[in-house]
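Hi R.,

As promised, here are both runs. First protein below:
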Amino acid sequence: MALLDRAIVRVLPAVPRPVVRRLSRRYIAGPDLAQACRVVTTLNEQGKMATIDVLGEEITRREEATALLDEYEDVFETIEREGLDSNVSVKLTGLGLKLDHDFCRDNVATLVADAAGRNNFVRIDMEDSSTTGETLEIYRDLCGRGLDNVGVVLQAYMKRTLADIGALAELHPNVRVCKGIYVEPPSVAYQEFETVRINFVEAVEALFDAGAYVAVATHDDWVIGEVLTLIEERGLEPHEYEFQMLLGVRPELGDELVREGHRLRIYVPFGRQWYEYSLRRLQENPKIAGYIALDTLKRLRP
């Protein structure tokens, strides 16, 4: 299967954009905010929350970062006006992290302050390992300013994650835990599937022990089962944690979690860079490419 996944990824750049758009339609809301809002409205009607992500990262000019910041502020205004149950997720490289640390920190602080005024929340995404230290530093800085409507992401395949949880424990942080999709060397990231799964559950357990609010971002049945056991053992109420999933991925599993009374948030990306995002994400994680291909074939069957 791994060979098939990589083969699919190799031919992706040669696939016409309309075909890629059809393949990605279930996983990306579309190129504009109006389409994202329609998706979020439908999710809310299904009892699910959302987090909106404006596609755009690895920018090269300050003007691009400022423009993306303006887009996010428009997103918050629209969420408030439309009465949507959604927060936002941001990537720091899109707000200038690779250009200037202080410039990026100030951009994020502006966005978090705007969200606070609207009783909303900002999730700082985690990117590749070259950004981990600075991302956590900026998160700590924002918490130190008394901003409590901001959270961060930790990746289960990173060898440093349990140590990072220990360092953040005093903050009682708000953390999304995910497996991680970036291609990383064995020196910094676990490569074995089972090891990553086990580290995921240990990370969630450590965060619960630290009094953190944990967003469990996974489509893995085994991980979900283990986390549900932790929740039951601690007697946690639904408002003390949430599950998160990607738009269009295993919606039946998400429906089951909602029926069982758990909070579920769906990641809803949108933006003009949908094509670049699709290719990059599939190239970074060939398993996703294989999953999408098989899923699409199933849907095309009569």
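And here is the second one, sequence first, then its structure tokens:
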Amino acid sequence: METALNNVYDTVIIRFSGELGLKKHWTRKRYERRLARNLKKTLKHYGVSYTELVRKHSRFYLKTSSAVDAAQKLARVFGISSVSPAIETSSKLDDVIGKSLFLAETVLKDGDSFAVTCKRVGKHGYSSADVRKVLGQRVLDEFGEKLGLRVDLGNPDVTLGVEVRDDQAFVYSQVIEGVGGMPLGTQAKLVGLFSGGIDSPVGLWLVMKRGSPVVPVYFDISPFADEKTTERALQVADVLLDWAIGFPRKVYVVQHGENLKQIMETNRKYSCLLCKRMMYRIAERLAEQFGAAGIVTGEAIGEQASQTLTNLRVLDSAAKEYPVHRPLLGFDKAETEAIARKIGTYRFSSKKAGACTAVPYQPSTKAKLEDVIKAEEKLDIEAMVKKSLDSIKMVEL
């Protein structure tokens, strides 16, 4: 069916996220250039051919013989509110009606209800209301009795849409919701603490949606977790980075097991906090190396013992130079899982993998910073950070 519809359409209407229109002129231009680049990278990645990508009236218009395929791929590009496979014609009313009837014959089925919408930019010898009235009546005249059609303006089975832009017009019957947000690459890069569980991929995805590319950093805590944990993390990263076509598909794996072993020998009560504080320190060095503006995590208030507000403050103090961003701070688990399902990471994140065996039986939920710092005095922090940085392996997906 999709292949057949590809033969019907010749254009994809690409609507910008509403936020782009609120930016000042020079900022909006910069964001639109980045968005155009991301669209082209996505089309190239998926092998979708096209002849032209034109910007006009807060839209991009993509000329392609694979409009349905292109629309489905481009709906996942950050900065897009919606897309529609469409047929281009002239703004002459007879041409608009003619192409709309051709589309109606293709998409309407027995017993369908339908409605007509119209948006116009420019001066024409007819109004939007004229288009709706004339086209609605012609559809009923041509197909109403044969297909048993009825008009339903509230919840139609099919909506025939018309966009008239100066001397051009586009007709369509489907609006595919886009992901919204800001074009990826319009904000600074962030280093992401990435576990492969449910929370951290969602946290990284949310900052990507706001325009920040992420550098996923995974801490391998073997032998305190089995190899399935690392395998799962890379599977999740592969799905997550499908949302960042045109950007590096790399995960940086830090060998962290030896650090955790030394921490456990020093202080089992604070092992989770000491472990995470070490992660923060390593992430800061990587942020400097990669030119990132900060660190992003999947932490939420009270999600784990180490994530009480008291303990988050203890963790924050380990990061001296870069801010730690927590987009999931106020989310509950159900909200996070809903996003994970939407973006496709839940399928792998929910797989069973060995839990960390270094978690204390009764972890501290209200640790005092001075006590944690005192426990760290028994560790050679700088040597541990350096050894971890030397151990990093880059995995290209």
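A quick note on the second one: The CA atoms of residues 70 and 304 lie 42 Å apart. Let me know what you think.

Best,
J.
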